[in-house]
Design a protein that fits this description.
Protein name: Glycoside hydrolase family 1 protein
Distance between the termini: 9 Å
Pfam families: Glyco_hydro_1
CATH superfamily: Glycosidases
Family: Belongs to the glycosyl hydrolase 1 family.
CATH architecture: Alpha-Beta Barrel
GO molecular function: hydrolase activity
Structural class: alpha/beta
Largest sheet: 8 strands, parallel, barrel
Shape: globular
Organism: Anaerostipes hominis (ex Liu et al. 2021)
Bound molecules: 6-O-phosphono-beta-D-glucopyranose
Number of helices: 15
Length: 463
């Protein structure tokens, strides 16, 4: 007997994407760090493909929005690029061409009755601000970001109800200052990474403050939560897991929702003399300006244990407290190397419900990148991505269970609508409901796109 996995009629179904990964660099006022990184080191990108054309959303947004609507999406997220919208970073003056583009794109969403979530930062620091001021380590850059946000709110705040300040802010310090795989590709810059964590939280709170002064909508933040599971129940492994959770999840989750940083993080930073520069006035701003809702990007969990292999590093980094271990028997997406563990989505929901006041939240990204999807093209030219449908259903089933138990989740956005570019993969791994032919820019709905239409029509699916 089959059973229905049901979702509310007003549930958000959709997908996320981002300006720097979709638009292409056409007519842009400035370069962001990814544009610059690609221009100066093409060989570091898969098949040397960069963001210059990307999915050319800049020219295709009308057909793309229609197409996304046709596969059942009632909502979607993209980001406004700081380096596109702003002509003069110091004053926040807007670029006219960019205003026209974003205004038309917003209008198109309205025409198609799609709820638009506009995000303000998707790892896309303008390169000029990085070179001039050091990027997110600088508090002047925090204030310039708030100016950019204010310009966006004044221009589009009456048209767009849902906004978010940052996408996955933790990736900026983690990947850019600790692990070296995102621009500026620093490794083990622990102290700078901590200042970046603080400054991003401050920027988010200051942006929320100004939003609530001039707009009537709702504003949130998109956090990548990676539930952390210890190798064993030993005191040491549990402690390692607690520290990892505090640094990588709660450093943003706690201030975003509760207005305060985790005590254990502050304590460790003080003990190691690497506490960020903060003022009482700034902490008060963080305390008073928390999010209206939360977006959670979930891809994979972290499996951790106490550090047993000495770390070859003479500066402070959170890695000295733990190491990740290869859990035997785990399921992995071989193309991305990420563990597939749907149960974590339930654990996230419970955590938000029990420890964060059951704040309204949605899954703002979840997805599976696969290489070589051409091999699954059928006689009608459609990619039969059953693996992706299975991935989504497994996660949705556990999300539905948490909602039955009272979780305040209002939507599910996949990554992503149309195949798009990424600095890690360029176009190697594809994630979309809609396939993109890079030569012709032709878009073709995949089987998962048809699946989405069906489940949105019937508000769920049968297992
Ligand atoms: C998320 C990001 O972390 O993962 C996206 O918000 C990104 O920008 C997505 O593209 C998938 O990761 P990747 O590295 O496989 O493209």
């Amino acid at each position: 007997m089959s059973r229905k996995i049901s979702f509310p009629e007003n549930f958000w179904w959709g997908a996320a994407m981002s300006g720097p990964q979709m638009e292409g660099t056409f007519e842009k006022a400035h370069e962001n760090v990814m544009d610059y990184w690609y221009r100066t080191s093409k060989e570091e990108f898969f098949n040397e493909i960069g963001p210059n054309t990307a999915t050319d959303f800049y020219h295709h947004y009308k057909e793309d929005i229609k197409m996304m609507k046709s596969i059942g999406m009632n909502s979607f997220r993209t980001s406004i690029q700081w380096s596109r919208l702003i002509k003069d970073f110091e004053t926040g003056e807007a670029d006219e061409k960019a205003v026209e583009f974003y205004r038309d794109m917003i209008e198109e969403c309205k025409k198609n009755d799609i709820i638009l979530v506009l995000n303000l930062h998707h790892f896309d620091m303008p390169i000029e601000l990085f070179q001039k001021y050091g990027g997110w380590v600088s508090k002047h850059v925090v204030d310039l970001f708030v100016k950019f946000a204010e310009t966006a709110f004044r221009l589009f705040g009456d048209q767009v109800k849902y906004w978010t300040t940052f996408n996955e802010p933790m990736v900026i310090p983690e990947a850019g200052y600790l692990c070296g795989f995102h621009y500026p590709k620093y490794v083990n810059k622990g102290k700078e990474a901590m200042q970046v964590i603080y400054n991003l939280n401050l920027a988010s709170a200051k942006t929320i403050e100004i939003f609530h002064k001039i707009c009537k909508g709702k504003i949130g933040s998109i956090l990548n939560l990676t539930p952390t599971y210890p190798r064993s129940n030993s005191k040491e492994d549990l402690e390692a897991s607690r520290i990892v959770d505090a640094f990588y999840n709660r450093s943003f989750l706690d201030p975003a929702v509760n207005g305060v940083f985790p005590e254990e993080v502050i304590q460790i930073l003080k003990e190691n003399d690497v506490l960020w520069e903060q003022t009482e006035e700034e902490l008060q701003i963080i305390k008073e300006n928390t999010v209206d809702f939360l977006g959670v990007n979930y891809y994979h969990p972290k499996r951790v244990m106490i550090r047993e292999t000495p770390l070859d590093c003479d500066v402070w980094t959170p890695e000295q407290y733990y190491e990740e271990y290869d859990m035997p028997g785990k399921r992995v997406n071989p193309y991305r190397g990420w563990e597939i563990y749907p149960k974590a989505i339930y654990d996230i929901a419970k955590n938000v419900q029990e420890n964060y006041g059951n704040i309204p939240w949605f899954i703002s990204e979840n997805g599976m990148g696969v290489e070589g999807e051409e091999q699954y093209i059928n006689a009608e030219g459609k990619i039969e991505d059953d693996y992706r449908i299975e991935f989504y259903e497994e996660h949705l089933e556990l999300l539905a269970k948490a909602m039955e138990e009272g979780s305040n989740c209002f939507g599910y956005h996949a990554w992503t609508g149309i195949d798009c570019w990424s600095w890690n993969n360029a176009y190697k791994n594809r994630y979309g409901f809609i396939a993109l032919d890079l030569e012709t820019q032709k878009r073709t709905v995949k089987k998962s796109g048809e699946w989405l239409k069906k489940i949105t029509d019937q508000h769920g699916f049968f297992v």
